[in-house]
Amino acid sequence: DFYIYVKELSWLGYPGPNARNPSPLEDNWDTYFAHGVLADTLVGYNVSAVVSDPVRATELMAINNYAAWIGGAAQRFQWWTPALGDHLKVAVNAAVHWNGTAYRVGSGIVHAPAAAVSAPFCETCPGDSVLPCTLINVLSLLSHAKTDLLTTDGSWEAVSYDPWFGAHHADAWVNDKVGTWPEGFHVIAFDYNGTCVADGGNPANIGVNASDLFSDPQTHNEIIRLSDYLSHWLTYTTASGETRLAFTMKIRRTQRDYYLLVGTPQVYPALMSPCTSSYSEDCSNYNAEAIVGKAAAKLLLAMDETALLKVIADLEGGLGDFSESYAGDFAVHVYDVNTWECLSAVEAAGGTCPPTISEGTDALTSAVGLDANGWSEVTYEDSSVAMVFALRVSWTAWNSYDAQDLYVTVALSTTPGRPRCVASSAACPEHSTCSSSTGDGICECDVGYALNLSTATDTCGGLTPTEMVCVDVRGEDCTSTDDSTVDIDNCNDCAAGYFCPSGQPFVCPEGQYCPAGVSSPKPCLPGTFSSSTTQSECEACPVGHAAPEAAATQCSPCVAGTYAEEIGSLACTVCSKGTYASSSAQESCQACPAGTTTSAAGASKFEACSICEEGWVFKNYTCEECPLGFTTSSDDPASCSLRSEISGTLIVVGLILVFSSAFSFGLHRMYKLRLAALQAKADAATEQTVRRGLATIEDFGHPMVLMMSSDFMELSQGELRKLHEGNRNSHRLLFVDNYTKFQAMRDSGLKVIFLSYQWLSWTTKGPSDFQWEYMKMGVGEVIAQNKWPANQTYVWLDILSIPQEHRRVQSLAVDSLYVYAKCADALVVICPKTVHENTQEVADLASYQSRVWCRVEVLARCCTRGIDKVYLLDEKGMTAATTEWAANMVQVFDGNMTCCRQGHDGGTAPCNRLSLILPLLGLYYEGITREEMTPGLEFFEHTILNCKERVFPSQFHYTVNTEGDYEVHELFGDLIERVDLYARARTCKSRGLSKSLTLSKVGDSDGSSAPTTTKENNTPDNTDFDDNYDSSEKNNTGKIKSKAKDSNDTSDLRDVCTIEDGSIMADVELWPDRADCSSI
After folding, report:
1. Pick from 173, 176, 141: which is nearest to 158 by CA?
2. Is the peptide bond before 274 cis (omega within 30 degrees of 0)?
3. How far apart are CA 516 and CA 503, in angstroms?
4. Does the structure show a pLDDT above 80 at 662?
């Protein structure tokens, strides 16, 4: 509600000899240039636009101008806004001289005291004892008095006599200001010489020296010592012997120092007996508030942190030296206002922390609100539920300006006890009797009636007394009861969720259900369950779960290798041969990749899809058919060998060839055709692999999730640790569904900063506190350097942008990591020197460079957008990445992975390196077929094409234990060579030069090697390549660039494809390997 206004500063109100008195309303003096609330009404006009009375308008401008002319001061005046109507306002005005013009700048508040806070049960807050309302009202009255005294109209007389500044007294002023303060609340003021200048409780003290009003002559000096640091709580004793708890605050008026005191007798009210923390009594909430009031006073009187920690230790440890006042198992706890957690000073000192609140802090904070105290329900970490009263207080050391905001709380059980009773009285509600026939007891409901206890908050925010009602739940057979008090003519069915064997209701147990009107519970049928009591029906098992037995309290998740696709399943179904389910609770099984199968039904992991039929071998993650005349054997299923039955045949064929060259030529021709057909299948598999790779880098498998930079910079540690899900629920995240929408948003100005770093803990997700500070520093510097608008700049951070709870959804986002990185306008590597929490190893830029996942993020970004706006941020500051650094990072598989370090569970788990094959193939294919020169393409040619063997190794070391023992496993194999051939084939074929397209491997100039593609097609396939393709213009790597050209002109294609007998043969290597990687 605060706002600023700016207007011209005229001579009107000037306190010097040059004062002029123009007619401002006619000359339109004092024009407004800005106004935070009434801009449409006032900007370009003066105050007469709001105040119609010209005399009042002139006076209003004069008094506020005067405040500005004298160097800045507060003024009190009547004002109006649409929201508040007419009201009294206090505003501070100051003069600013700029560019030859004098301006008056001001801001203000409504000048009215906060409404006095009530005591429990909406009673008037007493001014003669210490309750939470007393502490709040003391601060409100003192703030109100100080505000008025700072205006030029404020006076000490008003503080002493005007009921607006304290309780009524005998000679109070009579005016239109309504006194809102209970008896006992008033202001006392002294100047620093010790003279009383105001006393709302006894004006006769005005002019009397402090030494005559305080019992201790040093009290005045002690108050000055505290007031010099602006304010503090203290106790003092009057000359009459009354000890008072007061708040003192310094004020400077007319170049002199004063201090104000507002207080109350230091009397702590006695607790009402026999009320306990069950809040079943009318006085339980009163006792809770009285305890909080005393505890808060003890905290506020602590003069330094040592004293504060001592008080907190007393409270958390059983209330210490004032525990005699706290009967009835009440417990006080102190929390940090910002986090609802233990104070950092208490933790640092090894003190006892309060119980952790897991749910309800937001509601309790809201209940406390502006009145600084209130009730709300919370749930603790141990799942217990309580009704909590909280008081917000602000503590400072006596010699410090820094405040520590605290919540002081008392909890009451939310399972209320029954009201107390005496057997001889009729105090119990209807349909209940006292449990004791001789003395004090509790009220109990009669047979056939159920207890119903309720509570609520009253209009003052306090708890109302518990109400006990006995609800009629008598069963269908209640007529058989021997209880003569039961009304047989008014028998009701047993309530749903209960069963009533003889009129008395019993809770329906877990695993069973009880519709209304039953005398015994019914077990849940197989396929259903009941996980809690008082259920009127059972729930069907969700998909992926089953309940084979009756009376189930929960459904069992289907184990890996099984699934349940329908709700209400009695049993899980085993995955059929050729499918697998790698985790539990699956509603369906995943099919093995094309050409592969499993050895049997019930496969529980992807690696089981490695079985090929006879005559097929597992290679490059698919099954490939052996060449004609070759097959596999049980002794060596991993390779093709000559069929035994063909060996003799070949001998005969050899003899026949001696006598029949014509027959030999035909057989050779058939053999080549068969090999060509097999190679076509292999090329189809290559195309499928390429397309799967491209799919991982061309669109989002999961929406790209971003946080606006301004929200990111304001995010607290606690909010960060709520991860993706917590910040999603708080509506701080932006979800971009697909790459097309992202491109449209980028075209409208969206900028993305991608934060790359290494995790430093095995238990805590995301950045350490140390890294978090560097991340905010890096985001700020990137925005400043590039002059990006903060409201159009967003941040990608893994624990905010990737789901953490749902594993299947999480895997979709992880698989999209490459697309996210390539979308980044800036990539910031966070690498300040620190240590890993568990290994204690140094973590810095060197350790960052050693991580495979970190290298992948850099590779994806640089191969699409180059190294521009790739930054390294460490303890020395932020620097731009160099080409040499980035070139080293793209050798992804030179880095380390956690799974390899941990030995792959003894050699039984797959290596995460395998998951990188498809996206890296996609990046490679995208690079070699991209025609438009970009910074990313230049980087790709300089690094990837220079060193393909290092970037895409054919094999890798698969560790089988933590000692470093390993096996050599295939990684890329010959996939890169096959992708090169596939890309060449697509390039030549796109020109439509022949019906038949045959490409040899590089170096096979005579075409003797197995052809890579043979396909009959009269129509050029232009799906992936531009028609305007010209191979005569190449860069220094041999990579073909495009140039506009007649699509029918094929002369330059002879550098790539030569026509022989209607076939196109590849004679030139388009993407040659470089000699070595020495420059990288």
Report:
1. 173
2. yes
3. 13
4. no
